[in-house]
User: Fold this.
Amino acid sequence: MQFIQTIYTIWQREIIRYWRDKTRIVSTFFMPLMFLVIFGAGLNETLATGNFGVDFTQFMYPGIIAMSIMNIAFFSTISTVWDREFGFLKEILVAPVSRVAVAFGKTLGATTIASIQAIILLILAPLIGITIHITIIPQLILFMLLLAFAISGMGLLISSLMKTTESFGMVTQILIFPMFFISGAFFPLTSVPSWMSVLSYINPLPTA
Amino acid sequence: MNIIRVENLTKQFNGFTVVDHINFEVKKGEIFGFLGPNGAGKSTTINMLSTILPVTDGEAFINDFSILSQRDNVRKSIGLVFQDPSLDDRLTAEENLRFHAKLYGVPSDEFQKRKQEVLKLVDLWDRQNDIVKNFSGGMKRRLEIARGLLHYPAVLFLDEPTIGLDPQTRAHLWDYILRLKREKEMTIFMTTHYMNEAEYCDHIAIIDQGKIVASGTPRELKKQIGGDIISMTSNRKAELKKEIEKRYKKDVKEKDGFLQIEVEDGEKFLPRLFNELTVEIDSIELRKPTLDDVFLSLTGRAIREEEPSDKEHMRQRMRTRRRN
Assistant:
């Protein structure tokens, strides 16, 4: 019982902190939409001459969602590094609670934040002319949750090893960009060098 | 039964001994002061007692629970106020307390009652819904103390509770600490490197370079010095020192550019000094011993001679910055 309560308490704190930070909410929406507008519009024109058979925006949108999940999930786990720098981590570590529960709470907090934003992006999809079949939505959401959870877990692992926010930022950037580029969201992975396709198998992003 | 028992507690970092086989006991309901300069091993000892830091050797019991084998029970028995702030400053005071209560398994109806009790004790009751970020350094400290009390610990650990606070706030904080002892009969274990604050403690242990060099009540320790202290200065200091050593067979110590001797009866000794000395004295002072002097006589150097460490500077800056 205390185990569940610990998870819930840690989770709740993450959500409250997120909710109080309006800049964070606004900016996390802005970035994927900006990507979509700039890349989508720009590349759509450029590629209009070739015959792809699909609208580029349509092709990009799932990638955009996956990317924002990844960004937000990673970024949210930075709270652990903050907690360390600002001392709150000590308060958690001396409490008579299970460390596993603490880690779960943190991961679920980041997962929740990332998933909420992904779902909002999904709702926005029809507004910018993207067609999604109703039938695949539950599936999509399930994958979003899984991806958010996986990335949060990974983020937490990194953030628990990092001493400063600066180093955390560097490490996540180094991880995020390759993961994103070889995810198949920018270009299909059917005709890439073999080393890249091997890497893309390890990468959790293409699956999503 | 003593509430804290420490037996040969030792901590080494990379072969360097930070805490060296220390032994002490703390009685229930007293304020126990752990004194020493920066880097003497005070925080390391607290971290070991609160089970955050693994122990290299030795054993300790808090509330009869072993810090080695009964960690969760030890954790439930202690409240901690760290040297560095450990509040979540984006949350309100009330939320900080609520999360603490949940982590320590305090039931919600019980929490409402205790919240009122601890917040009123530290005079923060009417600020409970304010975001902690807007609190001053002293208010944050008080809130941390309130939080540390929320789960009714058997022992409250205060690690340098007054560091980085202005003298007025520091005095106020002491009012709260003494009120705690009076009203709750709380056992308080505190570290400090301000010797004047140690006068409030019932018992004191002085730690230097990882070893306990003295312990007892403040009165006992001051008695060890064996009398009054005369400190004087002269522009022929070396000669003066030599003459005093020769004439009175006294041990002369140097502190802050002053020569210091300990004498039985200062009032009677001064006139003798003036009559007999051939070397001129520029200024002279007679005073009763303080704990500073105890430390000086035990270790041969003053506790405050040491500059605040870089970390401490940073800490003070952080406090002021976060207050804005």
Notes: The first strand of chain B starts at residue 4 and ends at 13. Residues 4-217 of chain B form a domain with the Rossmann fold fold (CATH 3.40.50.300). Chain B touches chain A at residues 50-52, 71-73, 75-76, 78, 80, 82, 84-91, 95, 99-100, 102-105, 131, 147 (CB under 8 Å). Chain B is about 40% helix and 25% strand.
